[in-house]
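Hey L., structure's done. Input below.
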Amino acid sequence: QVQLVESGGGLVQAGGSLRLSCAASGRTFSSHRMGWFRQAPGKEREFVAAISWNGGITYYTDSVKGRFIISRDNAKNMVYLQMNSLKPEDTAVYYCAAKNTVTMITATKPDNYNYWGQGTQVTVSS
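Output:
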């Protein structure tokens, strides 16, 4: 069992930066693939970024490539999402997700994660 708690969201001007954190409980965190998803009002939850169990592989959706960086610290049971050059279209609730798997094949699909945090709001003003 893994419990996830996100933090770090807030209100920022366009062009600014935020760092989201996801604290995970559970002794098997280091064996979990981790992902960040986001959901804007009236839209479906969409993939943002994912990182493999050892941090060796990362995936990003095209709209955040070059701006966002996902990382993890298995010693601290933490996953991070550094968000730079933020745009108003990045406004959403951001969710951390986990799946006990080494495969990255299904990393972009929310149905392929079985643990979710409660979400943290990110609002980017123009």
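The radius of gyration is 13 Å. The mean pLDDT is 96.

-- N.
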